[in-house]
Fold these 3 entries.
Entry 1:
Amino acid sequence: MHRILIIDDDNITRSLARYFLEEAGYQVTDTESGELALRLLEKEPVDLIITDLLMPAKDGLQTILEIQRLPQKFKIIAMSSGGPTNSTRLLKVAKSYGAVQTLLKPLSPDELLDAVAKALQDGP
């Protein structure tokens, strides 16, 4: 069973993503911040990380960079609604930082599950 970590400060998005993934058979952990996610990753390995890009304190891009510095390598999916910024540009930057897939919010269950399946089937 694949283990997935969701990082998003929005409780509704996080809960819905968790629900869809658990219904599909994944083991899911979630947190509302990049800082908490980094602490979790020290204790609990995962197969995939899904992170929002626009979050207070530590944004998703900074979180991705810090995750990339860890000794263990993780596959990352970045997601964004864009907020007051251009979400397409943010998602392109996330790809250049190492995200293997990107998603626009609001998430559709099919797009989320397709992105997760593709990320998990791709090589390390």
Entry 2:
Amino acid sequence: MPAQLRVYPSQEEAPDLDLATPSVHVRLGDLLPLIALAHRHNYLWLQDFLDDEVSITPDLYEVLRAFRCYRPSA
């Protein structure tokens, strides 16, 4: 018996579903090595999440902003 195809509505046709609100808290120290490994080995599933937003503390945001402009001297 051939497999039956299932048709799912596209995002535009999908009913108004609330996006899942973040409910899992993870330490950055636990998360970064996993993301770095996935990035280094070019795992395709990581690309599925590149547009997702993350919440960070204001002090980490300030450090990251400063780091972005940091240019090490020779």
Entry 3:
Amino acid sequence: MSELIGSLFVLAGSVFLFSAGLGVLRMPDSYNRIQTGTKASTLGTILVLVGLAVYHPGWVWKLLMLIYFVLTTNPVSSHALARAAHSMGIRVSSSMVTDRLQESEAGNNEEGAR
């Protein structure tokens, strides 16, 4: 029974990892690609690691450390990539309605000029 549960977790994780790759290919701009790849790959990786923990109960603590590492590094790295892309002037998709970071930076520049 535990093999079936572990296999279902690994399969669900694989589906999310596949959707992350598909999202990276299909999204219109770099920012959406970063967001899609990060969220889906984080969840997919965690589900695969949970499935492995079900398969190998002796590895639970090591896999929990890996899950913690994934949860802390993936969002931070994607945020850093998005900020770097924005500061380099990488264009957004034409369907994007607002750019809050640009509005925030413009507001800060106006306050500094006073």
